[in-house]
Amino acid sequence: MMDMNAPQLSLGVIGAGAMGTGIAQVAATGGIDVIVFDTRPGAAAKACEGIAARLSKRAAEGKMPTEDADAAAKRLHPAASLTDIAPCAIVIEAIVEDLTVKTELFSELEKLVAPDAILASNTSSLPIGAIAAGLQRKDRVAGLHFFNPVPVMKLVEIIRGPDTTEAVAEALFVLARRLGRTPVLVKDTPGFLVNFGGRAINTEALALAHENVASPAEIDAVMRDCYGFRMGPFELMDLTGVDVNFPVTRFIYESFFDDPRLRSTPMHRYKLETGQLGRKTGRGFYSYA
Ligand code: NAD
């Protein structure tokens, strides 16, 4: 297995959405060559260009040296096809939160990469053991769970599945630190630590709104101004994307055999079904027009 501090380390990022783009950014600024792939035509190139533009803006504002921004931009490479990922020592998957789609991708990836390459998933809730279940080599699969927005949020959960070796987990600790993150080892349980802990706040907030105790804006204000949260649960759901947090909420609820504490509400589902996904669609619990 390659040393995660090696200068010539090359990292593959699959999925150029909110999370993949953030992961690619912190990897490039951490001195790592990044190859980005997305099935949406043009998405990987757009993500790389967006990161380069953001870094150059930061340099112009005096927040980072111009040569560092330029060097990081040069480390970003959009992939024309999934096979371009083949030389990567580590691949981080950040695609749609769907177990079938993820397992299909991992079985393609294991045929492409070197036998000692690490395959990591940024899943918010799906069991790492289930993502690895059908693979020939389950020992090199792990969870590497970043938080949104990646360049700002320092915490990273490292999740070992039932077969993940200690060496793989240790390599991910080294990588996470190289990316300027704070890694924590958590168990392969539904929602891991952060998203399971956060359910209590989200589902309670949804229930309060559902029961007309208070509006989303009032609940968010209480969480910010009284409890000192940086943003309220509805603001956070709009930032995450309802298409991301609804399946996570449902998965955790089902995983705990329909525990009512973890139940969502019809309004949450309605936002999903009507495409009111949050910031990404201009409307969610709030309007961003
Ligand atoms: P997103 O919808 O912004 O991006 C997903 C990207 O994956 C899209 O660009 C899509 O075209 C691409 N994609 C879908 N299927 C693909 C495939 N088979 N191969 C290659 N590309 C594919 O989603 P996101 O918010 O970046 O979330 C990605 C993952 O990260 C999910 O597993 C999610 O649960 C997890 N996550 C999300 C957040 C968050 O706050 N949004 C936080 C932590 C973890």
Automatic annotation (TrEMBL):
It comes from the Bacteria. This is 3-hydroxy-acyl-CoA dehydrogenase. GO terms for biological process: fatty acid metabolic process. It is an enzyme of class 1 (oxidoreductase). Residues 11-189 form the 3-hydroxyacyl-CoA dehydrogenase NAD binding domain. Keywords: Oxidoreductase. GO terms for molecular function: 3-hydroxybutyryl-CoA dehydrogenase activity; NAD+ binding. The chain holds residues 1 to 289 of 498 of the full protein. Residues 191-288 form the 3-hydroxyacyl-CoA dehydrogenase C-terminal domain. Its EC number is 1.1.1.157.
